[in-house]
Design brief:
mainly alpha, Farnesyl Diphosphate Synthase
Amino acid sequence: MSFSETLAPRSIPQPRAMLELIKPITWFPPIWAYLCGAVSAGVPLSGQWPMVILGMVLAGPVVCGMSQAANDWCDRHVDAVNEPHRPIPSGRIPGRWGLWIALAMSVLSLAIGWLLGPWGFGATVLGVLAAWAYSAEPVRLKRSGWWGPGLVGLSYEGLPWFTGAAVLLGAAPRFEVVIIALLYAFGAHGIMTLNDFKALEGDRRHGVRSLPVVLGPEVAARIACTVMAMAQAVVIALLLIWGKPWHALAVTVLLLAQMAAMKRLFRDPKKYAPWYNGTGIVFYVSGMMISAFALRSLGGAG
């Protein structure tokens, strides 16, 4: 079956294909970041759990799921080369169903965001706009190996973290919370660069200028790891300045574990990038929660 044939309306999508389209495996980073934000807010969580859980559902299955559907629709030609088994190029989601799913989930995102108050709704609007700006023409920021991963890192880590804190506070979070959220979002640029390795061939054919395409796998891997390490090094320094040496030590240990994993990555970046994203990133996100608890104790919450 050719790719063009899958666009002809002929059936409804398979339920399993619709779940695959919104990629549950990608929901964890924004869910985790939102939870980090809630923890870092420095306010008691008792009585706040409905808002915490609703925000986590919004950040992961709804907004992130929507962004995955939008990306797969806009990337259907690239995926026909890279991963023809995906729901849209394989025909398991036929016609324009991929687009309708992405649009419907955009509306659902805004509706749920409204329930989280002005800060939650405003952040949801930004998240939806960022998802479409990343994938859709004419903006399609994913064509850039610098702007694309930066936007995703901000949307996956920084924005949910900020939102989790702002929703519980009903106001803008403290400077310390914002700067830590931004640092982890900056470091996530490296995570997204490593994620681009799996689409290397299709990106080359279709003019997506990811860092692995433009600079080559070896240089791109070193830049990605440098960005991740630099962000965490600054986090460690700030925790020390703010009088949280034990939290700083824990994040340091996690950073050293990542650096050990990076040595294996550098042997063959194209081969080991998926492995690193499945192992080294665990240490990265663990440091996020440790930093969130440091900020919580800094704020004086019980």
